[in-house]
Amino acid sequence: MKRRMLMAVPLIFGGLLPIAACSQTLGIPAVDRQAGEADQWPGADEQLEGLDAGSVRLLFSQGSADYFAVTSADQLTACLYKFEEDSSQGSIGGCGATGGSDVIVEVSTPKTNMMLVRSGADTAELEKAGWMRIHENIVVF
After folding, report:
1. What CA dihedral angle connects 132, 135, 136 and 138, to 10 degrees?
2. CA 10, 11, 13, 19: dihedral to nearest 10 degrees?
3. CA neighbor of 135 nearest in space, from 63, 56, 48, 30
4. DSSP state of 38
5. What is the DSSP secondary-structure string of 68-137?
6. pTM for the whole thing?
């Protein structure tokens, strides 16, 4: 009887571990909260191909710029998009793998340099180099 009890405990905890680990490894708390009115994708539907439209979250707004995060359904990929009202380009963005590095994706254009980082990421060296953390998940230059 003791053997059955001991074996049941690892199975219960083993089943819960992947669920809890998924959110913690992603490092973008906004995707874990309930979507709100501001979390509406402002871009073309084609930009969400291969991504989970239900995970779209507005992370930060500054002036005429809105920064959105979106993930794949399995949360192995996360993207950062910047939409500007006065931009003829519409949006700038990129996607990267969520595993491993504190920097999920870096997006660089002649006018925009931004990174999607995990919350809690150590960005001190980036900040010394001139980058600025504008949100727990966004660093800009």
Report:
1. -60
2. 150
3. 30
4. T
5. EEEE-TTSSEEEEEEEETT-SS-EEEEEEE-SS-SEEEEEE-SS-EEEEE-TT---HHHHHTT-EEEETT
6. 0.81
pLDDT in the model for residue 99:
87
Measured in degrees and rounded to the nearest 5, phi and psi for residue 26 equal -65, -50
pLDDT in tens, 28-81: 999 999 999 999 999 999 999 999 999 999 999 999 999 999 999 999 999 999
Could you say which DSSP state residue 49 is in?
A: T
Asked whether 83 and 61 are in contact (CB, 8 A), the reply is: no
d(Cα 141, Cα 131) in Å, to the nearest integer? 4
CB count in 10 Å sphere of residue 140: 18
pLDDT of amino acid 8 = 36
Give residue for tokens 């949100």: 135
Q: How far apart are CA 9 and CA 128, in angstroms?
A: 48
